Amino acid sequence: MNDGENYWNAFRSHKRSASDGPTLSPWMITALQATKVIFKRRIFQKIRILQLVLFAMCNVVLTLGAVFSKLIVLIMSTNILPRAHLIGKFSRKCSRAIVRRTSTTTAGIYLSLLLIQCFPDTINLIRSALEMYKGRCGRLIRSVVVLEALRAIGLAVLSFHVFPQLDLARCLVLSACFPLVAVLQRSLVAMVSAARTGRSFKSRLGRCFIAIPHVIMFLILMSSCYVWTLFDGKFTATLALPFGVICTSIGFWESWIDTTHAGTTYDELYRLKYAVRKMNNTTNLAVSVMRIVCTVAVMVSAVWMNDHKKLYLSHFFKAFFSFSTRQNYTLLLLLACGIIALHSFMRVISRFLAALDLHPFSFIHPLSIAPLIAYSFVRYTCQSPTCSIARRLAKFGLRWVCDQWFQEVDGVASPDLYICMIWLAVGCYRGWRLVRQRYFDTTEEIISSMPPVCNGLCIEQSLVIFQHSLNRQEKTMLIEDEDVSDENDELRIRNDEVDRVSTVYGCATMWHETETEMRQVLRSILKLDVDHATRMNNKKVGELRYRLEGHIFFDDAWEDVEEDGLEKRQPNEYFNMFFDLLNEMTGEKLNDEGKMETRILVNTPYGGRLVVKLPSGTLLFVHLKDKKMIRHKKRWSQVMYMYYLLGHRIMDCPLSIEDRQQMADNTFILAIDGDSKFEPDALLRLLHLMNAKSDIGCACGRIHPIGNGIMVWYQKFEYAIAHWFQKAAEHVFGCVLCAPGCFSLFRASALMDDNIMHKYTKTASEPRHYVQYDQGEDRWLSTLLLKQGYRIEYAAASDAETYAPEGFEEFFNQRRRWTPSSIANTVDLLMDYKRASENNDAISYAYIAYQFLVIFFSMLGPAIIFTMLVFAQIAAFGLNSNDVMIYNALPIGIFILLCFTTESNVQLIYAKYMSIAYAFVMLAVLVATSSQIVLETVVAPTSLFIVTMVAIFFFAACLHPKEFTNIIHGIVFFLMIPSTYVFLTLYSLINLNVITWGTREAVAKATGQKTKKAPMEQFIDWVLGLLKRGFRLISCREKKEHEEKRVRMEKKMQRMELALRNIENGVDVKKILDEDEPKEQRTEETQTADLPIEQDPAEKKEIQKANRYVWMTSHNLSVCERGKLKSAEKTFWNELIETYLKPIKTTPAEMKEVADGLAALRNQIAFTILLVNSLLALAIILIQKHKNVLSIKYRPYKGFLWTKMNEMTGQFEETDEPLKIDPLGMGIVLFLLIILFVQTIGMLLHRLNTMIGAFQEVKNLYEYGVSTVPNTKNDDERLMTNARLMINSTGVTTGHAADGYTRHRADESDTGNVLYKLQKARLAKRMQRSALSNN
Predict the structure, then answer these.
(1) Residue 386 predicted with pLDDT over 70
(2) Nearest to 837 by CA among 845, 826, 828, 827
(3) What is the dihedral of CA 874, 879, 881, 887, to 10 degrees?
(4) From the record, what ranges are coiled-coil (predicted)?
(5) What is the Cα–Cα distance from 94 to 126, expressed in whole angstroms?
(6) Do 382 and 184 form a contact (C-beta atoms < 8 A)?
(7) Which of 761-765, 1204-1208, 1311-1315 has the lowest mean pLDDT?
């Protein structure tokens, strides 16, 4: 720090331009989930069997799907031209299958083929245009545009011009000739190699013999361009045939581009094929446009050249816009949509198998076997006619076209049969050569990729998985731009001083945890200690290793005690309990001198520190925070360890900026609470995930609440559905919005980025800041990461447990803090959606809309539940609707009044008793709902929604077998719906201003004013006072209290006399007067829960000096060694406290101003939400009262019957009247169903993601072997290779090079890393100061 600047304080907060988000598409993100589980042998075998079954099923679907798709496309193509009279055995036998064709049917065939080919391009076009609109462009790769345009032209020419003149069998053998250019390339390479100078004659002759088969295969495939033109009058597309075959063969560039093209003219094609580079949005847009334009142009030319009579443009409009399932052209378009869906599903399966490293067998891959299977099926069908095929095709206006040129007579085959068989054999062989499996060493880093473009007319070309090892590449193949910077440049990138072993800092925050909670977190840390040591000692290649260091930050860990007449500050009972528990669990013994060598006590500027060496060598730092010296609470503890570990440890270390950047990239902070419980495997799963995807700023696990009681049962189900649905949907469709502080892994370089760590130190200056910043610090930190462009992901297999509130009051108070903070941060993200969407590629406008719906309907929860309760009671008890509405509105209205006028304890008592009462009401809701389902049947909208929701919950539980028992707790959840969705929501919103000292009572206490109670509180106090006085009179308690008071006064008078007699001797009078008095009567807190009272600086300094070493001499800490803080670290802590963590000094007037602002904010938000909910509830009830006029008549199906009570007879009777649906209520149900459906889809995809991780682990276990001994650590840590499958990296130099793995953005140079930006800013500031001083 020669320039007088603090490196540790280099972090910044400022407005910045959008940064590129992740370079991975959603399915690639899904394929990158990597986890590790220790399986027993029996479970391992079952998973292996399931894996094999799934592999076989996927292979069958791929092969048969490709055959079906190919046949449908060729059937449509061969039916473009009218075939009035077909000859052959099939046509004669199946002549009764009458095909009715019109011009609109022909137009439907054209449009269907166009849709199959161009729909994927249209979707790609829209996606690329949206990305380019956001500014994410790139350099146009012209070679890809030209080749893809040629492929589109070739396939369209064949489909619209050539295939209509052929039969199905000849179309199939012709499609096997597409590897024409690939065979030509092999021939030329072999001949050039033979002709190379310097070779012996024998070598040249041998290479010529090698080239002969390739030349012969080329000549055979080339004959497909002219053979049929030799048949007089039977084939007229003499020019279209060779043009289409050659264009398609050239456009099939994946077949003739391989690793030998790296560094050549075709280097860009090589990079795209093997996913070394991702196709950028500009190229994607150009490719999509060219393919669509070329296909449409060829189709238009075919319509004109095929000489269709009475086929006009109106027929195309009619076929496309006139929807009728009775018309064959509509059925054709629906069939095309089905083929498109099949293609998408097949590509997903291919990606899925690649993610599992389970590639289809080469000999049964669709590219090598589909033409052969389809040809065999066509020949068999034509020889053994199956008229059911003809009848089904006739519904679509299609015919099964067999050979129309030559009919077999007396076993004589057609003249072109043998050459066609050779074409088919060569095509299958070349397809096998292209898709054949390659085997790599277990230590190699593999990239798997798929063709970037989907070809609907020849889908087998788009199902190939290409694998390539980065370890086998030459260095020149990987580097795009050579680094020619000065070797002595301070900013030159070199990673020779820091290895790539990850460093994990486990940081726990504690306050007043119980012994059980402390034991739980210590046990987890000790397990990590053992696992870390085992892995660091294991030198096996591919083994995941990490350095570990533990930090525990004790809030409010000090207290004033008086010992031997001296008042001093020493650790409180909670730390003493922690220290004794730590000694017990580690089994540390005293040495000969009565000391513990692994325990060191250190004085620090923030209080004190205990340094412990755990049994396996991990250092555990226990930081004892004194709230008189440093800010307390969890957020400021997080600021402490962020700046200490990332600022002081990384930024202040004497390494180059590049090495510090690598340290930041390989450093992670594991944030846990003081009661968290987890296994080492949970951390490893998060580490694998972070190492696999460099754009992830944080990864969190599955949190399981533990404890006893009904409230814990409720939370078990609540946490389950929140993780099953909400968190999974956020992970799949966007980003997780909240990383829980009880178990989350943060990337150091992400926290060090702009607008994150530095902005996290910001103190609240506006009323909403107190809600957003201090009530939910975990949620705010997550919001900062998301807005800066980092992903937060959820790993369901990474389990952790934490104690949940067991009491009703504790639960309500916890949610009183969480709910406003969650809403405030979500609203902040929604209001700043443009910046969030620009910076974070995972946050789309659709995801923003989804979050808006979720937060909107959560605010309408009280009205929705209120109306549900009203109508359920009406249906269950047959009461008058007005009376029921009043009966339910009164208790809720009273609770609202209590929330505005009384303290929290009164509100909670009322809410508790009303929750019990409404639990019985929910039984009426259950009866009414069941009755409605029986009467109106399941197809009624409300009944359908309820049944669907229950079925989905049960289905979700089945998908999570280890958590299936949580579904049982859904009973408690159901009974507590009114409590949590009405009373808890109102309690949280109306107490928005309660932020510890933000209430009027705390302000009055701090300012010395008398608290003015509300009339309701005064009345309650008066009643309680009367009862208390009556009890005293009855029990004679008042007389006893007077006697005790007289005795105390006599003792005090005696002490005063003693003080006066000894005052000349210098005895402390105050000590004598206070002697024997209860501690709580003579001491008073020097600060409120949030705010320390201002203290004289000199007095404070004297107290700190006196307590410097005294606390180390306490009876339990005297066994520890003593240490001293290094001067550099001491300076750091002093500067950090002075800059960010100095206890806040606020005047009573400022506190009152904040409290008034919070109250105004509360009033504004609470009254708005109350008004909206009241209007909604009133609107629903009024519409129900006028249901005959304002309802929508709904009949699920023709002949629908339901049961209705006859008002005249009072009997239930069946009726065919349509159901009367409330439009407003139906709209709410519909939106809730949409949200539930989206979350269900997200859950399914996330479970698929988890299954991929499980199969990856099984594969690793299989490769390294599985021990039969339970819980034995196995060598199963080779996930780096498997986890990076499907990666589309834009820069292999930084993404996959052997000297480091750093966060890389697509459109930024290598200087875009975090520390480089900070260094540049510091150098710029230094130059600016130098220029000013020179002037």
Answers:
(1) yes
(2) 845
(3) -90
(4) 1039-1066
(5) 45
(6) no
(7) 1311-1315
